[in-house]
Amino acid sequence: MQTFLILFIAKILSRLSHILGNGGSALPGLWAERMDKNIITKLSNQIPEGVILITGTNGKTTTTKMIAYSLEKVGKRLVTNRTGSNLSRGIASTLIEKSNLLGKIKADIGLFEVDEAAFPAIASSINPRSVLILNLFRDQLDRYGELNLVADAIGQAIAGIKSDIFLNVDDPLVANLANYIKARSRIHFFGVEEYQQVKLRHDYASDSNMCLICGLPLCYKKNFYSHIGHWYCSKNHNQRPTPEIKLRQKKNKSAQPDNLEIEIDSKKYLINMNLLGLYNAYNTLAAMAILSVEGVDLNESAKNLNQVTAAFGRAEELDINNRRLYLFLIKNPSGFNQIIQTFLSKVDNIPLLIIINDNLADGRDVSWLFDVAFEDILAGQRTIVASGTRAYDLAARLKYAGINFKVEPKIKDAINQIILSTKANDKIYILPTYTAMLQARRLLSKQTNTENIWR
User: Fold this and answer.
1) Where are the alpha helices (DSSP H) in 220-322?
2) DSSP H helical segments within 203-320, as ranges?
3) How far apart are CA 136 and CA 228, in angstroms?
C-alpha cells in the first residue's frame, strides 16, 4: 500500500478515535505499522535536525517535557509524544499526526520518550542523533525480564548507531553501557556530585549493586537511593566514571525548593527547581545534558527549566471541589520510595489513596510492593485507603508495615471516600499505577459535587 493511502486512512482512524473518546494515541500507528513496517523510518527521515530518544525506567515523561519546553521557548518546532505513548505504535501515531499526506513533517527536531524494551527496535528504525539513558530499575519483571537482559539489549542497540549518548554515571548498569559504544559515538557522562538526602531506612530496593566483572557487592561513598550513588568495586575492577556534566544542590535558607547548580564545560548554571525531589533533580540534570549539545543558550535554558510544571500524573496537581489533589504515578519500588522520601516521610496528616492495578500496562506481578519502604511513611493521623484490583495485596503489605488503613477496591468509591473525609482547601495524595491513574483522572474530570460523587 502506498504511503499516501496509509497516512490518509491512519489520519481518519485518529480522528474517529478522538470523536469516540478513545484518545487515539496508538491506534493509527498500530495500523500503519501493520501496513508498512518501515513507516517510522520513512517519516522520521523527514525531520531536518534529527531525533532525540530518551529511555530508562523512571523519569522519561518529565525529562522529555523539560527538554521540549526549553527547545520550544527558543523557537524550535518539535514533533514529540506528549501523551507518553512510548511504544513504536505511539511514536508512529505521533509522526502520522504531524505529517501531511505526502509524509512531510513540519518540525525541526523529533523528541521521543521510548519504552526500555521497545528502544532497540525504535533506535534501529530512527538512527537518532542523541540518546539519553536515565536509569534502569527492576520494573514489570513479567514483561521485561531481569535488568541485565534489558541493559544488554539497550547496549547492543547503541553499539550500532552513531550518536551523542548520555549516560547517568550514578547508576552502575547505565554507566557500564559505555562498554558497548563504538568510537564513532560520543559519550557524555552526567551525575550528581552533592545532594543532601539521607537514604530511607527501609529502602532495600537495590537492583544493580554487584560488580559486573567480579560479582562482588559494590561499595558506596555516597548512596542516594536504591543503587544510585557514588559506587566502586572493592577489588578495583570498576568504579563510577567522573561526570563531565555535574549537579550540586545549593541549599536555600527559605522554605522554597532547593536551588540546583549544574556545571557544564566549567560553566555553572543555577536552577531554582519548581519540582521537588532528588529524582526530579536527576531529570533536570539530564535535560540540561541534552540541551548542552543543542546549540541553545544554556543560561536561557536554566531559566526556562525553572518554569516547568509536573508532567501528566507525575506530582500533577488537580483542583477538585476546592481540594488540591496530587497524582503520583507509581510502578516500581525505587520510584515509590522516592515519593515516600520526598512527600510522605514528613509529619503531616494529608490523606493518602494508593491504587494498585494489575492490568497488562501495570504489570501482573505485584510482589514488588514488598520492596517498598512503607515503614518509612509517617502516617500520623492521616487517612490511608487501599484500592484497585490488587487492593488486598496492598492491604497485606500495609499490615506488615504496621500502618492503619481502610480497603475500598472500587476506585470511584475510594476517591469518593477520601474526598468526603476532607474539607475545603485540604490536600490529598493519590498514588496510582498506570491504568489506575487513567481511571482516576477520568473519574476526577467528571467530579463537580463532593456531596454526590458519581452516584
Assistant:
1) 278-291, 298-305
2) 278-291, 298-305
3) 10
Task: Give the model's confidence band at 279: pLDDT under 50 very low, under 70 low, under 90 confident, else very high.
Answer: very high
288 with 383, same domain: the answer is: no
C-alpha cell at 232: 566502586
CA dihedral 88, 113, 300, 310 (to 10 degrees): 130
Q: Give the DSSP letter string of 29-79.
A: HHHHHHH-TTHHHHHHTT-TT-EEEEE-SSSHHHHHHHHHHHHHHTT--EE
Give, in order, the Cα–Cα distances in Å from 268 to each of 246, 277, 301. 9, 21, 12
94's grid cell: 505521533
* pLDDT tens digits, one per residue of 130-156: 999 999 998 766 666 678 899 999 999
Closest CA to 356 of 241, 264, 435, 294: 435
Cβ neighbours for 34, distance < 8 A, ≥ 6 positions apart = none
452 burial (CB, 10 Å; 0-12 / 13-18 / 19+) is exposed
Residue among 454, 312, 330 at smallest CA distance from 388: 330
What does the pLDDT average to over 42-58?
A: 95
Contacts of 274 (CB under 8 A, 6+ apart): 257, 306, 307, 308, 309
In a domain, 10, yes or no: no
What range does the domain containing 322 cover?
314-452
Question: What distance in Å separates the CA atoms of residue 223 and residue 198, rounded to the nearest whole number?
Answer: 8
Domain boundary among 273, 305, 337: 305
Rounded Cα distance between 243 and 363, Å, is 34
Closest to 83 (Cα-Cα) out of 131, 140, 14, 35: 14
- Domain check: are 285 and 363 in the same one? no
Say yes or no: 350 and 295 in one domain: no
Q: Which of 282, 305, 328 is the last residue of a domain?
A: 305
Question: How confident is the model over 227-268, as pLDDT tens digits?
Answer: 999 999 999 999 999 999 999 998 765 545 568 999 999 999
Q: What percentage of the chain carries pLDDT values higher than 70?
A: 93
Rounded CA gap, 99 and 46, in Å? 9
| CA neighbor of 333 nearest in space, from 207, 426, 176 | 207
CATH number of the structural domain spanning residue 136 = 3.40.1190.10
Rounded-to-integer distance, Cα 52 and Cα 76, Å: 13
C-alpha cell at 226: 536504591
Q: What is the mean pLDDT of the chain?
A: 90
Kindly state whether residues 364 and 223 are assigned to the same domain.
Answer: no
Q: Whole-prediction pTM value?
A: 0.91
Q: How far apart are CA 67 and CA 54, in angstroms?
A: 10
Spatial neighbors of 153 by CB under 8 A, at least 6 apart, are 117, 119, 120
